[in-house]
Design brief:
- The chain is an alpha/beta fold and 338 residues long.
- It is built from eleven helices and twelve strands.
- Strands 7-8-9-6-5-4-3-2-1-10-11-12 form a twelve-stranded mixed beta sheet.
- The two termini are 31 Å apart.
- The model has no long low-confidence stretch (mean pLDDT 92).
Length: 338
């Protein structure tokens, strides 16, 4: 199996693989898994339909041979997947993989963080949308307070993790938390990233009127802080970063709505039941699990992955305005991973 680099029809290489290890979550965030849709009786995937760790490892090895260098474990909430540290250890041994990261709501980090660090995980992105307990409890849909998440952020740093905090900003919900969040994490020199509310899936009630844009957030922050823009560190970097003028703390913006980054997107996504997606806003995926369990050889699977990527034309965020009003069913974020 020869190593090669594949590019899509817009000459974008495949460098990043996001792997959803479960579609389950212990939160019911309003922008991802609203409790009105994902109730206590919601039919999540049965265990037999999830990719096994051995299947994930095999696919990761094949993706690495096509140019993937970074893996991010997502969900749902990935810490709900039992023995996740075993998977991290397996992925850390894959030739060509240079970085493994995890996106989590942070609630279970104290229980599993040490094992994950010992297995080779070094970076975690932790979701936190407000410091105000009432606002945060309303946004996570479970009434969970921010204090345990904040404590686990500190714990993760003590273990040695590089930590970034992600805040989804939704107008009418938590835009008043932008400055308090920025101040809290500035004091701790933790990178805080503001994410524009996105129209992922079909269940979060998205509309342009609910988006607080990067420009609007920068105007708010600029009244309080001196912020200096940084150059992007690598091709495919989705966040635009700014550094505080009086220290080493940074903030970032992920701007899928107001400033598309489709032109440099290098991300492939693997759902927890083994479907390959080439866009966060995709409607359909390619079933790799069927090939794995149907006895396909490595070369056959490799050719299938390469074929999907080389035919890729996705530019949803570039085309969002033109697609407005169309009835287009998109895969939910909890299924595909954020």
């Amino acid at each position: 199996m020869a190593a090669e680099t594949v590019t899509d029809r817009h000459q974008r290489p495949m460098r990043d693989l996001r792997i959803s290890v479960t579609d389950r979550c212990n939160f019911r965030c309003v922008y991802c898994m609203p409790k009105e849709i994902f109730g206590d009786d919601y039919p999540f995937l049965p265990k037999r339909e999830l990719l096994t760790f051995e299947e994930i490892h095999r696919l990761a090895r094949l993706f690495a041979s096509l140019g993937v260098r970074k893996i991010r474990l997502t969900g749902g909430e990935p810490l709900l997947r039992r023995d996740l540290d075993e998977l991290v250890r397996m992925l850390a041994a894959v030739e060509g993989i240079e970085d493994i990261a995890l996106t989590t709501n942070g609630l279970l980090l104290r229980e599993y963080g040490r094992k994950l660090y010992e297995a080779g995980l070094r970076r975690v992105n932790i979701s936190l949308d407000a410091l105000d307990p009432e606002i945060f409890g309303r946004m996570n849909g479970r009434g969970i307070r921010p204090e345990p998440i904040l404590a686990n952020i500190d714990f993760a740093r003590e273990l040695g993790f590089e930590v970034k905090v992600n805040m989804v900003v939704q107008k009418g919900m938590n835009e008043g938390e932008i400055i308090p969040m920025a101040e809290y994490f500035k004091r701790r020199s933790i990178t805080l990233r503001f994410i524009e509310f996105m129209d992922v899936g079909n269940d979060n009630g998205w509309s342009c009127e609910k988006v607080v844009t990067k420009r609007e957030m920068l105007e708010m922050l600029g009244r309080v802080y001196e912020l200096r823009p940084e150059n992007k560190s690598r091709y495919g970097e989705v966040a635009a970063y700014y550094r505080h003028g009086d220290g080493d703390a940074r903030i970032g913006f992920i701007t899928s709505v107001s400033e598309s980054f489709c032109s440099t997107c290098t991300r492939a996504r693997l759902s927890s039941d083994g479907k390959l997606f080439t866009c966060l806003f995709a409607s359909d995926g390619f079933d790799l699990r069927a090939m794995l369990r149907g006895g396909a050889s490595d070369d056959e699977i490799l050719r299938a992955i390469a074929d999907v990527w080389t035919r890729r034309t996705d530019r949803y965020s570039d085309e969002r305005a033109a697609l407005a009003g169309q009835r287009r069913k998109k895969i939910g974020m909890s299924y595909i991973g954020g």
